[in-house]
User: What shape does this take?
Amino acid sequence: MAIPEFHSVLAATDLSDFSNHAVPFAYAIAARGGVVHLLHVIEPVVEPSPLYAHYEPGKFPTPEERAREKADLVAHLRTLVPGDATARGIETRPTVVEVKDVAEAIHAEAERVGADAICLSSHGRTGIVKAVLGSIAQDVVSRSHRPVLVVRPQSKS
Assistant: This one.
């Protein structure tokens, strides 16, 4: 049996320090000359109907403002690339998508890019906290047919 190589790895982050902790691991498992797809998911803007009394024009971003926001997020994703990624020949492709269901967005992006593996962070919540808050990592692991590396940052002692 051959050792598998991950030429395409999807790393999902919400851009928090906690979530960003998983990004270097995506580069660690990517083969030399591979690609790491950095993914950030934002919720779509849903404007209320102008028929409602509480509607305030100008409160929601214009398409141009939303495009600038996405460009800024892509630039932020690029700051997460480890310094030695280029030396290892690993290409980075950052993407920002607008979708309500984050786990589904991760699956869809993994399909779209043909990812060999998915890498993300998890708080490792269990019990009632997990039941109430849900777990994106749990959802991704349970539905994925790809290997999923779930990284839990070490607690500070």
